[in-house]
């Protein structure tokens, strides 16, 4: 069983990812090419959820296939438990680790999602989750759907990057810093940092609909995947319990606004999210019991954020409904 709690007190995430990029000019040896790459994700994982959302918003389904790992994994690898026989139907592997070892036989780090895999060779290309979504927006433009939004508009990139950095360090990673703290002092420091950032976000979003500009950007995608997991997991499991999301009026309305936007809430599988955290993190939850709650119907209630203006997709249009093979199973969402 893997250990997640930081033995030294403060949790520090290993951010040394495979930085190879898939680009239009192929400068790293992996050119943009429809059908060549498979995006491996797990609905449970917030970092992977970003990639699922961006791929769908941009309409890259025909260009980049997707494979879903199950919600739980052992200390060794994410696995394809959801597929017949436990084998990915395209890569023909049962463990994502196989794709990592195919390229790096002595790969020393954890096997993470999302990961882009070269279907031709079966080798992992990258697991750099932050760069994957930016490259979807900037390198795969020739294969975006008609009406795809600009999630990383050039005039706003500096501000998007600045906001995203703070969201990452203080919120996306901040909840883990609370949950994996190895001492009371480390936990309390992390707790104070997290809620200071949530207070800052509440003020920022009080009078503007989105984090940067008047449309949905990469920054909103990155914040959403943490907020949507907050009450189901982080409030209790990670002890981020000053307030529930539902008790933070601005952020709760903002999160509902995004959840009800096509491409966001229809990618969220609350059952798998809870199974992942409560079953995998046995050093935090030794019984492996998965909580029955919280009640989810509130995600579909009116949010009132339209009054702030803004155009969710800018000059673009909402994505069509998800494909049948990519839909969240019935009973796993908020409906």
What does this structure look like?
There is one protein chain. The chain is mainly alpha-helical and 335 residues long. It has a domain at 154-267 and 293-326: Glutathione S-transferase Yfyf (Class Pi), Chain A, domain 2 (Up-down Bundle). The protein is built from nine helices and four strands; from the N terminus they run βαβαββααααααα. A four-stranded mixed sheet has the order 2-1-3-4.
Short descriptors:
335 residues; mainly alpha; Glutathione S-transferase Yfyf (Class Pi), Chain A, domain 2; 4-stranded mixed β-sheet
Question: Topology, please?
Answer:
Blueprint: E1 37-41, H1 46-58, E2 65-68, H2 97-103, E3 115-118, E4 123-126, H3 129-138, H4 157-172, H5 174-179, H6 184-205, H7 218-234, H8 249-259, H9 270-280
Parallel strand pairs: 1-2
Antiparallel strand pairs: 1-3, 3-4
Helix pairs in contact: 1-3, 1-7, 4-6, 4-7, 6-8, 7-8
Pfam families: GST_C_2
Active site: 45 (nucleophile), 176 (proton donor/acceptor)
GO molecular function, one term: glutathione transferase activity
């Amino acid at each position: 069983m893997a250990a997640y709690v930081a033995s030294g007190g403060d949790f520090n995430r290993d951010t040394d990812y495979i930085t190879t990029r898939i680009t239009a000019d192929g400068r790293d040896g992996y050119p943009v090419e429809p059908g060549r790459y498979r995006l491996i994700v797990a609905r449970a994982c917030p970092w992977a959820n970003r990639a699922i959302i961006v791929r769908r918003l941009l309409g890259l389904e025909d260009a980049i296939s997707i494979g879903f790992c199950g919600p739980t994994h052992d200390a060794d690898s994410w696995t394809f438990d959801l597929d017949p026989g436990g084998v990915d139907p395209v890569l023909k592997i049962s463990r994502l680790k196989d794709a990592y070892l195919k390229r790096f036989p002595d790969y020393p780090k954890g096997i993470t999602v999302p990961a882009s895999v070269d279907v031709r060779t079966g080798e992992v290309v990258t697991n750099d989750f932050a760069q994957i979504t930016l490259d979807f927006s900037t390198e795969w433009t020739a294969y975006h759907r008609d009406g795809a939004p600009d999630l990383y508009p050039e005039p706003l990139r500096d501000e998007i990057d600045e906001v995203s950095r703070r969201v990452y360090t203080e919120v996306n990673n901040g909840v883990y810093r609370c949950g994996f703290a190895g001492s009371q002092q480390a936990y309390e420091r992390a707790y104070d940092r997290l809620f200071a950032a949530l207070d800052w976000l509440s003020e920022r979003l009080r009078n503007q609909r989105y984090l940067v500009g008047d449309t949905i950007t990469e920054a909103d995608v990155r914040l959403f995947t943490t907020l949507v997991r907050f009450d189901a997991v982080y409030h209790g499991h990670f002890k981020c319990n000053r307030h529930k999301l539902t008790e933070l009026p601005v952020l709760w309305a903002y999160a509902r606004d995004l959840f009800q936007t096509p491409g966001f809430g229809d990618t969220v599988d609350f059952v798998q999210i809870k199974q992942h955290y409560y079953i995998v993190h046995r050093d935090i939850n030794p019984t492996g019991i998965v909580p029955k709650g919280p009640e989810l119907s509130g995600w579909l209630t009116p949010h009132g954020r339209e009054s702030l203006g803004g155009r969710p997709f800018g000059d673009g249009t909402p994505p069509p409904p998800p494909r049948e093979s990519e839909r969240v199973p019935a009973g796993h969402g908020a409906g």
